[in-house]
Amino acid sequence: MQVTTHQHIASVMKVAYEGQASGMPNQLGHGDLIRDSWVRCVHEHGLDPTRMQEAIILPQARLREHKEQMDSLLQIARHGLESLYSKVSGLGYVVLLTDARGITVDFLGDLVFEPSLRKAGLYLGADWSEQHAGTCGVGTCISTGQPLTVHLDDHFDATHIPLTCTSAPIYDSLGNLSAVLDISQLSSSQPKESQHLALQLVTMYAHDIENAAFLQRHRRDWVVRLSSAPQFLEVQPEYLLALDGTGRVVGHNRRAQLVLREINHGKLVGSSWESLLNLPFSHIGRYVAAQPSDQRAVMLRGMHQALFLSVTPPPPTPLVVRESAALNIPTPMAALSFGDPSLDQQIKRASMLVNSPVTLLITGETGSGKEYFAKAIHASSVRKQRPFVAVNCAAIPESLIESELFGYMPGSFSGAHAKGKRGLVQEADGGTLFLDEIGDMPLALQARLLRVLSEREVLPVGALKPVPINIRVIAATHAPLESLVRAGKFRDDLYYRLNGAHFSLPALRDRADRAVVIERMLHGRTLTAAAHAQLMAHPWPGNLRELRNVLDYACSMCEQGDIDTDDLPTLRNTSMPILVPAAQRTFESRADGQLMQSLREAHWNVSAVAREMGLSRMTLYRRMKRSGIVPPNRE
Question: Which pTM value belongs to this model?
Fold first, then answer.
């Protein structure tokens, strides 16, 4: 039974003020780890058990700093977090990843419950350090370096009594704690023993993330895998070591550190290969998968314990050459910015992921260059010789989007082509599929897209057998997907799958290189000082797209000399787009003119206009988007 707030505070004070925690009897039902933590909270951290405080959530600017410092590990850990969340989300858990200071830098959870999760601190930016939050899964894991469960009234702060939190540490290859993986529930009616499986799962996934980070960091060194079971030697080794060219240890995973440091009675890094195993380093090449794993047994020095050994040699490419190449920004990516710090940071991150299988999500205002950004990533990757297929999810009629995306078999529906049709997903095979305005995709098709992303295969309409595909997916939207998830209009599992790495493009009005962008788009034409000042002062609600249209118009109006203010179209401080050339002037069509008039007369009440026209609200939004009509309140 859950204790009351007063009972809990009394228990904490009894432990903290009446003696050493580890020596106290167990009548309160808490283990030594918890009681030791309570004592630390009072005597080392200066926390008051009678003072209850809500979770501390860092502002976005500070959270961004913590995330940037963890960027490489976040990319590696994301798959592990998604896999763990898929196993526990149905049980009401959220998955958190924090840095070594206890700041939550990644989060997977049901956003329908966002207010409750945020209030409880089970959210991005939450500070779960023991110094601030008291005894808790993350903070006490950081303090002890051990995986543990902090269940209900194990927590120091009575505010957190309803929570159950299970955490495991993630170490870097030098033995330093670098992150904590945690799964938590808002409430639990079960005893602490019910979290035993949760503890095993978190520990296992933390180990997998740690090993993946190790292999990424030491991909240019000798990598040694050791396992007590030959069957799991290649797929899930227990111990990992990294060696330099002389046979010195330059890295290890946590399990190797705990076992092998006993041999040298100290630090493992710097130890020689021969000091650890009864095997000369000159013989290590014999264990490069040249014989069955059960015939590769070796003995740990002085421990009479046999382990099975597998070795991966370093790649032949010299380290200096590879590092030099890694520092270069690909030309297509570099061409996107002329010196804006915010955009430069996004480009630098994206350049590291051009050949990664991670799915990318690009957000930004309409016209801010999301498709150009995606094309630059494609052009910088090994897929650049294969198709880049752009799909505007808002422009395809809802009745056709399924067959357009996934294709169909001959005769699968009335009006189908006799030979069937390859869908846009298949057209992108080997290349990049760019899903623009992904927030407008109907819910029914989101499940099918999720299957495409997870299984890497597509099932055309009317087909019985799926077709395997090899695609890189980049999604983009100007809409806040988190809000759509909370409203039940976008699947949370698809959102997490798409959001492998998130890039937010700055609006043109916020770019420090705005003047250079204008100059480059003029292609050699020049502006008078007055015209330049007018363009610089405009807020550009339509961003780069609006700027392109304005400059094309101005260049057409000014036959010679400098472009002056009289050559510019009327610039509005609304998101109404500037008219495009005649071939694209759908806005000037009679039907769209009537639609614009109806929206104005209804004071932009889209629901009222949709009812008047006998359309669904979503269909009307798609028609508005095709016509370039954007309500003024979406500047």
Answer: 0.67
